[in-house]
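User: I'm putting together notes for a lab meeting next week and I want to include a structural view of one of the chains we've been expressing. I don't have a solved structure, so I'd like a prediction I can at least talk through. The sequence is below, exactly as it appears in our construct file.
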Amino acid sequence: MLQPTRTKYRKAHKGRIHGNASRGQLLNYGAYGLKAMEPDRIISKQIEAARVALTRFMKRTGKVWLRIFPNIPVSKKPTEVRMGKGKGSPEYWACRVKPGRIIFEVDGVTEDVAREALYKASTKLPIKTKFIKRF
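Assistant: Thanks for the context. Below is the predicted structure for the 135-residue chain, given as structure tokens.
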């Protein structure tokens, strides 16, 4: 699973995801991409599951670029614990994704293969996505 090697602070505020993506909204590396259409947090397990589905369908041909990284620690209190007594310990890592952000880029395969592979990857993500290609 993806996670930062070190961070400045161990715990983070929940935060809100407002507006559209101002960066990472154009294809930089590949010919095809998967673009987020909704705001949400994507956790590292979901990113890894999508990446595995993508590379398995492409049969390890072509190249895949991951354009997001989970750098937000999400804390959680254990079950059946009373209120108070501070914030819970970090459980997993997440990435805040705004609408318009490119999540994956693919190159070196045909459009049909890329479309199907990115569709399979999108089923592992908690947001609506859109297939895009370079013009």
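A couple of points you could mention at the meeting. Residues 32 and 95 are 22 Å apart (CA to CA). The longest helix spans residues 44-57.

User: Perfect, that's what I needed.
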